Amino acid sequence: SLNIKTRDSCLKHGGKNIFISFLFLIGGPHRTVQPFSDEDASIETMSHCSGYSDPSSFAEDGPEVLDEEGTQEDLEYKLKGLIDLTLDKSAKTRQAALEGVKNALSSKVLYEFVLERRMTLTDSIERCLKKGKSDEQRAAAALASVLCIQLGPGLESEEILKTLGPILKKIICDGTASIQARQTCATCFGVCCFIATDDITELYSTLECLESIFTKSYLKEKDTNVPCSTPNTVLHISSLLAWTLLLTICPISEVKKKLELHFHKLPSLLSCDDVNMRIAAGESLALLFELARGMESDFFYEDMDSLTQMLRALATDGNKHRAKVDKRKQRSVFRDVLRAVEERDFPTETVKFGPERMYIDSWVKKHTYDTFKEALGSGMQYHLQTNEFLRNVFELGPPVMLDAATLKTMKIPRFERHLYNSAAFKARTKARSKCRDKRADVGEFF
Which single residue of 192, 316, 351, 427 could bond 358 by disulfide (Cβ 3.0 to 4.6 Å)? Predict the structure, then answer.
């Protein structure tokens, strides 16, 4: 039982947030869940306080935090409470609960736990997508992606897609919905379809839905102006990237049709005044060239000269009206895109996770990795080690089994990481100072 004076003191000096945190620390009893309502009560009018006040903090430092601060049973107990809170009356509580579950599932593989509660989680996501507002819809869509990643391909994921697919499609195409919600739903729709779809007609339908969105950024036939970014541009970017991901699993016949439709229209997006759209279009073009040459080694593109000229201009862009960060990022990406288009070359990247390494040696693999990394965040490396679905996608074979002693020796304590980062920062600062001193000396000399 909670001491009344302690409760009153918490409420008097810090309000409900401190009181909720206090309950969380002492492991307070789980409260009765308020039923889901169309009329959401605000956080201030809640009649009870939650014992899960900061669910989003589950995955700040990945699975290491979970190992240090609690057992598997503790984590599952907290997750059960969070799942219950996804039906709370308060929109803020529901959103925090969705984010907490998503962060926990991103940082740890809990296949059996998720399998037993997939229907409950799907129902919660469905209700939040239908009745929630922008932030809640985004949290629900993000959780749906991670839920499918946890379950992998199979009947369970197919059922999730059948339930949520029509709702996601409706939100994506709803011009009155929040752009941010539509953007997250487009990414979620692509990820879930990539994992779960077993019906080729459903795959084609999803491609058409995403096409109907990003093609609105194409230049019209009689339009000679430069494509300008709009509030919808972020939605068009997410739709293009999701569409490109799904194209990598399409049959060759469908890929050929899509190449014929889009190969001559996509370059118009390279002139958009939004740097992220230019980069998304460039990487998509590089991937399309890779697919086309994979089907026909002697593939010929009619407008190659004009395209390479555009790519070279973007790879050496020095326009002063653009931000330095954007120019640096753009030049780096388009140097690689230009090499892919002109020389059929890809700069191999190495991803390390635990004792293993993965080599990203193609645009298809890079785009797939980037998509799942966006969904899982800092938990990507852990999932690469243990998630059988992701290991199959990247052809890594069965998970490498390591004993507890080996895993412990591989971990770097947080304090040591802090010292290492501090030393690296000091070294970089010292190097920059020396470089500046040299420039000053040269200036004085002249």
Answer: 351
**What's the confidence (pLDDT) of residue 256?**
94
pLDDT at residue 42 in the model: 37
Distance, C-alpha 230 to centroid of its chain = 22
Looking up tokens 């009619």 gives 302
Residue 280: pLDDT over 90: yes
Number of C-beta neighbours around residue 139 at 10 A: 27
Question: SS3 sequence, the chain?
Answer: CCCHHHHHHHHHHHHHHHHHHHHHHHCCCCCCCCCCCCCCECHHHCCCCCCCCCHHHHHCCCHHHHHHHCCHHHHHHHHHHHHHHCCCCEHHHHHHHHHHHHHHHHHCCCHHHHHHCHHHHHHHHHHHHHHCCHHHHHHHHHHHHHHHHHHCCCHHHHHHHHHHHHHHHHHHHCCCCCHHHHHHHHHHHHHHHHHHCCCHHHHHHHHHHHHHHHHHHCCCCCCCCCCCCCCCHHHHHHHHHHHHHHHCCCCHHHHHHHHHHHCCCHHHHHHCCCHHHHHHHHHHHHHHHHHHHHHCCCCCCCCHHHHHHHHHHHHCCCCCCCCHHHHHHHHHHHHHHHHHHHHCCCCCEEEEECCEEEEECCHHHHHHHHHHHHHHHHHHHHHHHHCHHHHHHCCCCCCCCCCHHHHHHHCCCHHHHHHHHHHHHHHHHHHHHHHHHHHHHHHHHC
Q: How far apart are CA 29 and CA 42, in angstroms?
A: 22
Residue 167, Cα to own-chain centre: how many angstroms? 20
Average pLDDT of 274-303?
Answer: 94
- Residues β-bridged to residue 352: 357
* Average pLDDT along the chain: 82
CB burial of 95-134 (b: ≥16 within 10 Å; e: otherwise) equals bbbbbbbbbbbbbbbbeebbeebbeebbebbbbbbeebee
Between the two ends of the chain, the Cα-to-Cα distance in Å is 78
Q: What percent of the chain has pLDDT over 90?
A: 63
* Cα separation values, 216 from 220, 232, 240, Å: 9, 9, 11
